[in-house]
Amino acid sequence: MPDAEDVRRIALSLPDTTEKVAWSMPTFRVAGKMFATLPEDETSIAVRCPREEREELVLAEPDKFWVAGHEAQFAWVRARLAALEDEEELRDILADSWRQAAPPRLLDDHPELGLPAGG
Question: N or C: where does the chain have the smaller number of CB atoms within 10 Å of the terminal CB?
Fold first, then answer.
């Protein structure tokens, strides 16, 4: 089961990522733009997720994904770390969120972080 230290290690391994405390929690940013946070006493992550995909995720796996009330108007989703299958799933989730926040130059410079296989 992935934990907060796995989130930190994987997020910071992504290009041009920094960690900054905001709202009393760790946040991770690519080129200054936030792509992940560690809320709920670091038992979950909040990541970018297009709204149309978010609804499908939450309906398909409600024990794993949910939308926090104050984030409903934004394109973010929460994931319970204890519900993730393994570190690979965590890496896929973080990389997907990173891609949504990263500037085009970073996407061009890091094709290995392209679209996930099989989605």
Answer: C
Q: What is the pLDDT of residue 17?
A: 97
On the CB side of 32, CA atoms within 13 Å amount to 1
Contact (CB, 8 A) for 12 and 102: no
pTM over 0.70: yes
Condensed to tens digits (0 to 9), the pLDDT of residues 82-117 reads 999 999 999 999 999 999 999 999 999 998 886 554
